[in-house]
Prior knowledge:
Elements: H1 3-18, H2 20-34, H3 49-62, H4 71-83, H5 91-106, H6 112-142
The protein binds protoporphyrin IX containing FE.
Amino acid sequence: MTEKSKEIVKATAPVVKKHGEAITTAMYKILFERYPETKELFKDAPEDQYRKLANAIYAYAANIDKLENLSKGIEQMALIHVEKKVKPEHYPLVGEALLDAMKEVLGDAATEEVLEAWKEAYFFLADVLIAREAELYQQQSNA
Ligand code: HEM
């Protein structure tokens, strides 16, 4: 991730926090409309799943230059994703839905530059999760 993107993500963290739940609510709506096959993964999800995701996104944005603060949260996410059988190919679908939701909710505040920075940040975190989840799937298959 470029330093510039980190700066932009950090600078926009407060506005994303303020609108976090609206963004993640819109995100799930877009995700399930465009990719109905993802709905099944969330069938046992708590009603406040969108809130958990909003909190995770904000914590990530606020800690983008000190990711070691997030290692416990990342491990927890990876464990639950593996339990629910989330796969690498799901990440671009969620990324697309998240960025479109940000555009929808933030309006003019979501400039091209802001969206590009968040896209980089999303896929950076996605790669960390995908790598950890691959290890966990591997361990499962060796067990
Ligand atoms: C960078 C991207 C992502 C982040 C930050 C993220 C974050 C989270 C968080 C914070 C939780 C809740 C963990 C807990 O309950 O303690 C969660 C659960 C979950 N996530 Fe993700 N996630 C991401 C990508 C994805 C993708 C790509 C999918 C697949 C479409 C997905 C599907 C799920 C499911 C099914 C659950 C469990 C819901 C349940 O409790 O039943 N996530 N995720």
